[in-house]
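Weekly puzzle thread! Below is a chain. First person to post its structure in token form gets bragging rights.
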Amino acid sequence: METNDINFLLEKVKTEDDSFIYDEEKLREAISKYKIAYSGIAIKILSILGGIFAGLAFLGFLFLSGAFDSEISLVILGIVLMAVSIIGDKKIENTIVDTCCIALYVIGFSSFIIGLSEICSMSYNAITSVCIALSVLSILITNNYIICLLAVLTANACLLLLFQSCISPESIIIVIANTGAMLVWVSFSEAKIISENLKFNKLFKPVRTGFFISFATGLIYLVVAPLWETSYHYLWILSLLIWPAIIYIISLILKLFEVKEKKKRILVYSCCGLILAPTLFAPFLSGCILLLLLSFYFNYKTEIALSIALLAYIICQYYYNLQLSLLVKSGILFFSGLVFLLFWLGFYQTIKKDGNI
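Winning reply:
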């Protein structure tokens, strides 16, 4: 947020409420910290990867030297490294220290899980359960963006693997539906969450991003895995869970654009129905549409670009995997494209007639 934007916002609030009091110096300091924390994420990720590889190389050296013959050493090392990373990140606000703390946390997490699994002779399901518990605990303790993001991704991935192993491969639909529901809930509860307290304010972005990536990854897994080819009687359930969210967001977008004319609303909902109907047994397609609409409504530009790229990839993958003749595939693409063109034509005419949109 630039200085002019801050001044404009503060003046607007003061105009509406004369009793509003604020500490301008503290406010600017907090915004400065926010910009430092969330800027250059790509550079941070590259630094993290470098730190992780360096740490793994060091662990490999210790392993070859015989320092890790005892599993207890791995557990102790894991606990120490995780504690140092979390405490160091809270005490020192520096990009280099921040990157080192993230690398130490990942190495400590891995060492703790490996050592504990060897000591207790834990099963696959027990290991994933411990990973979930440790990830949730990390989210509650840390304020670091990347650590929190990694913890959310780890928890969701382990939960998916746990359901797939304990119940059945089809049960991952439950996890994907839950991830999507959490993403929608967190997105619509932004104002309530960030105003709750400083802790929730800092965790909102990484948690939301983690659920976005987890849901997108789940959709990719559905289209890549052979599940969608053999379990149509399960996949339609996920589609029916996604559709109401899509329709609700479309209604909000129509309200945002002040589209009140009944004919236009009927046209939009009809096109929506035509687009969603073919995705009944392909929830990964309707899931991509949900991500795109959600990102568009909240104006998350990065997520919009990622959603479009994801939709293009999944359509190509789905088209390639279809066990149909080339003629039928061409027909599906033709009619799908026709529906999208009609939808765009109706939307364009609406924009042309209503200059306020």
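Puzzle host: Confirmed. Bonus trivia for everyone else. The chain has a mean pLDDT of 77.
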